[in-house]
């Protein structure tokens, strides 16, 4: 049975990543994840890089700049995915990342307490992205890995931003606010969006929808069941903002 349109399926919670839970035993195969949708984002076992799912194809962007198409057995400790069908298609100005959040507020004024799914395509003057290095040991925390993240700045690049905006009540479960990943048109480079801007006067094609259904599945591992999770709100903002 196919999942409902725009239902968000999330595996695990952001507090688990912050606490270093990204082992194979606390993951699911990406084939299982892809059964829940066609548009998504996340990370991989041992937090090895950044994930973009576009048109049901999953890409892994490594910290060394390389990219892999994910095999069905690739393991995923945290991700969101949805069978995306936009309810709104328009164009937006994008002078900076903060303006993206403002555009979502304007376009979906009655969705303050709901999840919003979006995709933005066009030519961007500048996109600053990052990819996380793989954990050096099991349990290494996300806030430690972020200190040594690989950061790249792309200029005059055509590509796609995939994102979710999560409501304030989801703190510790999802990344509150705008969480976005980027992939270029050639599917050669991508990662977590730190900063983004389009040329003045250039409008970006935008598609979005409010999600009326959020489904959460938790890892069934012993380590997840026993771990004292960190609810580090400021740490999450710093790591995923």
From TrEMBL:
Biological-process GO terms, alphabetical: acetoin biosynthetic process
Pathway, per record: Polyol metabolism; (R,R)-butane-2,3-diol biosynthesis; (R,R)-butane-2,3-diol from pyruvate: step 2/3
Known EC number: 4.1.1.5
Catalytic activity: (2S)-2-acetolactate + H(+) = (R)-acetoin + CO2
Keyword set, alphabetical order: Acetoin biosynthesis, Decarboxylase, Lyase
InterPro entries tied to this protein: Acetolactate_a_deCO2ase
Domain of life: Eukaryota
GO molecular function, one term: acetolactate decarboxylase activity
Membership in a protein family: Belongs to the alpha-acetolactate decarboxylase family.
Protein name stated in the entry: Alpha-acetolactate decarboxylase
């Amino acid at each position: 049975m196919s999942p409902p349109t725009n239902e968000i399926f999330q595996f695990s919670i952001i507090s688990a990543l912050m606490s270093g839970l990204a082992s194979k035993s606390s993951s699911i195969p990406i084939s299982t994840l892809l059964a829940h949708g066609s548009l998504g984002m996340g990370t991989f076992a041992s937090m090895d890089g950044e994930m973009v799912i576009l048109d049901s194809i999953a890409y892994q962007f490594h910290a060394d700049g390389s990219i892999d198409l994910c095999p069905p057995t690739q393991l995923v400790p945290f991700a969101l995915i949805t069978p995306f069908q936009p309810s709104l298609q328009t164009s937006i100005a994008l002078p900076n990342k903060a303006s993206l959040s403002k555009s979502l507020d304007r376009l979906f004024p009655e969705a303050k307490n709901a999840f919003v799914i979006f995709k933005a395509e066009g030519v961007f003057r500048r996109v600053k992205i990052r990819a996380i290095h793989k954990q050096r040991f099991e349990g290494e925390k996300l806030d430690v890995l972020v200190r040594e993240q690989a950061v790249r700045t792309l200029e005059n690049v055509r590509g796609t931003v995939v994102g979710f905006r999560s409501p304030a009540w989801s703190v510790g479960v999802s990344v509150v606010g705008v969480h976005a990943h980027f992939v270029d048109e050639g599917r050669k480079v991508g990662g977590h969006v730190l900063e983004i801007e389009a040329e003045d006067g250039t409008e970006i094609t935008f598609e979005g929808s409010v999600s009326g259904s959020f489904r959460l599945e938790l890892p069934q591992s012993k380590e997840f069941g026993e771990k004292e999770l960190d609810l580090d709100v400021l740490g999450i903002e710093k790591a995923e903002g």
